[in-house]
Amino acid sequence: MAFDEHDATEAFWRARQTGEFFPRDWFDRLTIDQAYRIQLGLITRRVAAGERQIGWKVGLTAKPIQEQFGFHEPVFGCVLEHGPSGQVFPAGSLIQPGFECELCMVMARDLPPGADLAAARAAVGAIHPALEIIETRGPFTAQIALALADNAQQKTCVLGPAVPLPAAPEAVACTVRINDAVAATGTGDAVLGNPLNSLVWLAAKLAEYRRSLRAGEMVMTGSFTRQFPIAPGDRIAVTFSGVGTVEAAMAA
User: Domain containing 124 — which CATH number?
Assistant: First the structure.
């Protein structure tokens, strides 16, 4: 059966209203391109219903993860909300939640497709130490196209205070603490060699869908470490060298 973007988006939208984010009728049916088109169609509907798109996320930026999922490039999603460092999420308010530790870059100017690393650097106005709060709303690994249609696990972002872009974001080191215990460390070069490369990739990819990376938008550039689950009572603190610390928690 030929793919009809409007009909597919409508089917996903109706399923979403009932709490079904990975419609079973669509298992193993979507290409990645079709999934992105559904994602953007759903975001258009969510914005029309009162939400506001404030930026983008780039995921699957580490080569080993790309190889694990059979991808040759990262993926994108849309960011519709964020909260301040120290945010506490009520227990039960998130669906199988987790977090990733990232640099959030705020664009000071548009970045066109074909831009290089120097242009990406010049387009960034500030960065935030950040946590991406994700939800596993369906079988992500088995149905990754449906996960992209469902906006690539995105729920919200938690941002620490903004600072200027460091001279070498690829050298920024992070330390992840969960309940005061060190859970992981990482550096910015885990993100496509340099988090700025996420902007270069995103600007080119969005052009395929008649979208663009614009001044004022924020971009979650990809995690320095693996993804971690969040359990009730967890306290999370991630420190980025030369950038700052961002914290969040889930109530017990």
Answer: 3.90.850.10
